[in-house]
Structure formats: C-alpha cells, structure tokens
Amino acid sequence: MHKAATALLAIAIVSGTAQAQSEPWANKLFEGTTRHDFGTVPRGAQLKYSFKMKNIYKVPLEITNIRVSCGCLTASPSVKVIQPGDSASLDINMDGTRFTGYKPITIFVTVGPEYISTATLNVTANQRLDVVFNPGEIDFGLVQRGQQPSKAIDIEYAGAQPWAVSEIVKNSASPFELKVEELKGRANRGYRIFATLKTDAPAGPFKHEVILKTNDTTSPTLSFNVLGNVLAALKVSPASINLTAKVGEMSSRKVVVSGSQAFRITAIDGQGEGITAERPDQEASTHIIEIKFQPTKAGDQKRQLTIRTSLDKETATVTIDGSATP
C-alpha cells in the first residue's frame, strides 16, 4: 500500500511538472492575454490591437526576436528592453488586403538574452468578401494644431441581400466630426463617410474606433479606425529640468521654445522662491529661455512655469525640480 501511494505521488509530481513546463514562462509577460480575435471584418480593413506586457521578473528582459506566421501581420514592441516592474505593449497591425476568409496567425516573441524564452500569441480574423473598405482606415497623419483637414472612407456591399447601415457610433470625445452620404452611380450599394478634424483637437496622437451598425443579423457590426497626430503649436525642449544649488549660490539651465511661426513670449508665470526666468523681447519662431535657481533656504521644491505667447494664446509648460543644499 505504501509503495502504491509513493508511486502515485511520483506520477502526480511528474505530471504536474510536465504541465508547468508546457507553457513558456515568457507567456506570463502578457498577464494571461495571449489571444485576440478581431471577429468578422470587411475586405481591406486595417486591424490594430496592442497586447499589454509587464516584466514581472527581477532582471531586465530584451525582446530579441519576433516572428509571425503570415506576412499580412506586423508586430512591433513599444520598447526593446523592459525593466523589472515596467510595462510595455506589443502593437500589431493586420492588413485586410492580404488575406481572405478565416485567418489564424501565430506570433512568436522571444525574450532574453541571459534567460531565453519564447511566448506564443494567437490572432484570428474572419474576412467577409461581400463588404469592402477603401481605404482600410482614415489616417490624418501629421496635422498642425488648428488645421481642419477632411478625409473619407468608402464602404461597399456586393452581396445579394438588402444591406444597409442603420447607425454610425463614435466616442463623444473623438477629435473629429463625421458626415455620411450614399454612393451613387455604382453597381454596388454603399456609403462614403467623411471625417473632419476639429480645430480645437488636442495635441498628440489619437486613434478612435468607429462602429457601423447594420441590418445584417449574421454580422450586425463593422468597424474602422480614425487616427492621426496633432502637432502642438509650441514645443519646449527639455520640458522638465533639474536644478541643484547651495543656498545663496545660483545654477541655471536653458530651454528652447519653438513654434510653427514667429511669435512673442508675453509672460512667464510661476516664478518665485529663488526660481526666475529671463523673457526674450524679440519676435521669433525659436526662443531660448534661461531658467535660474538661487535658493534662500535648504530643501526641495517643485514648480511649473507657464510660458504665455502671442501665438493664438498658446502656452507651454516647463517642470522644475529644484534641490537646495546648505
């Protein structure tokens, strides 16, 4: 009896070890999400998704290799090396012009270099051939803030059923407006959707999904992305500085403020407690501001300077970390 129990225990231990080793430890970087299904998509759609990653280990991990089983998908990491405790993403794009029907894809992500493991991710999509997007998404590219460009996407249906889009849904915070019109004079039924960027769109990159609700009960929704990058009218470099000085002494750093056209700096708010900034008087597209730190007492202080300009009342900010020693 004792020998039988020992044998069973040995089998249980061996089986448990084999099961634990069947999954690469690199899969744990993706926190349990190693699959994504885009569902049913139209022909030509550009499908985007980001797998979240986190380094749960105590050593830096470098992404040394990425392989995909289909040329219709590209994958790129947000960073090459993930430090312990840091997060990152693996951003994928699946090109709907390069596959048809149901498509499963495997992504192999190898990390190392000291401890090597390869995570396996699975992505699937099912492309319907009776609906075509042209182009696959609306991409504004780089846009100067305040501009109002418009771009369009065509949605065509080539099936035999009485197909129609009943509703178009977007996030209320989207930095663009939509307008739709029916495509006329074509053999296929369809729509042209115009996206117009708002003049007050905030600076920075954006990507929003637009959902089309249809009367097709087998695939009631379709979607496409609207993306772009709004460039700020002003840019500060560096936007954050560290200043260290002894009490009664002075240290300084220079920052560069540049704009899309010539402007004047009208004021610099937030000065005080030993922090001052010299304001240039001339009009130019690039200004150099010297920020000085002359503390009167020991300690740390953090301040933010607001640089006001004549450029459509645009402002820029500089964050200052000051440290004063006796």
Detailed description of the structure:
It is a single chain. The protein is mainly β and 326 residues long. The protein has three domains: 25-127, Immunoglobulins (Immunoglobulin-like); 137-231, Cadherins (Immunoglobulin-like), CATH 2.60.40.60; 234-325, Sandwich (Immunoglobulin-like). 6% of the residues lie in helices and 60% in strands. The protein has one helix spanning 2-21, and strands at 35-43, 46-54, 61-68, 73-77, 81-82, 87-95, 101-112, 117-134, 138-144, 150-157, 165-169, 176-182, 189-197, 204-214, 221-231, 234-237, 240-246, 251-263, 265-269, 275-277, 284-293, 299-309, 315-325. It is flat and about 80 Å long. It starts with a helix and ends with a strand.
Give a short synopsis of this structure.
With 326 residues, this protein is mainly beta.
